[in-house]
Design goal:
With 159 residues, this protein is mainly α. The protein has one domain (3-155). Helix content is 70%, strand content 0%. The protein contains 7 helices and no strands. It has helices spanning 3-22, 36-47, 54-68, 74-88, 90-93, 98-122, 135-155. Helix 1 (3-22) packs antiparallel against helix 2 (36-47), helix 2 packs across helix 7 (135-155) and helix 3 runs antiparallel to helix 4 (74-88). It starts with a helix and ends with a helix. The chain crosses the membrane at residues 53-72, 93-111, 131-150. It comes from Pseudoxanthomonas helianthi. Its main location: membrane. It is a multi-pass membrane protein. This is Rod shape-determining protein MreD.
């Protein structure tokens, strides 16, 4: 892999994840929007821990809070918790088949929703409707294609 590809792929993929989170969706599909930033960050924490960790998760979360106009620090907390859990179990996750990795990522995305609900409860913000709990399932289903796409780009193979 060339160094130039290694240098640009991580920031571009995270920026693209932020943009995907901003794309307008019809009201009917809005609850099913995957947490793209968490999915992309999870890939990098698992596959390139020397470049992606808690600090990057915190910075990405702050950027997402500013871009999405949410409660400042909420997404930072959510992403740092996810990155911490991924770092803790990285050695095991790397050797799981993609289907089991998808289940683990789905569990992390569900945990993310629980944290978000807790933050909204403590901050006395309105809770998201029950339909928003489907998004972790969509993220779990997207894990394998996203993983293969990013892995192919990172390794220099055609996807």
């Amino acid at each position: 892999m060339s160094r130039s590809r290694a240098n640009w792929l991580l920031p571009v993929s995270l920026l693209l994840a932020l943009v995907l989170g901003l794309l307008p969706l019809p009201d009917l599909l809005q609850p099913f929007r995957p947490y793209w930033l968490a999915l992309v960050l999870a890939y990098w924490v698992i596959e390139a821990p020397e470049r992606a960790g808690l600090g990057l998760a915190f910075i990405c979360g702050l950027a997402a809070d500013l871009v999405f106009g949410g409660l400042l620090g909420e997404q930072s907390l959510r992403l740092v918790v996810m990155a911490f859990i991924l770092q803790r179990f990285r050695a095991q996750l790397r050797f799981f088949p993609l289907s089991q990795q998808a289940l683990a990522v789905g569990g992390l995305l569900l945990n993310d929703r629980v944290i978000a609900a807790g933050v909204h409860l403590v901050a006395r913000q309105p809770q998201l409707p029950a339909s928003y709990w489907w998004a972790p399932l969509i993220g779990m289903l997207l894990w394998a294609p996203l993983f293969l796409l990013l892995d192919g780009l990172r390794e220099g193979r055609k996807s």
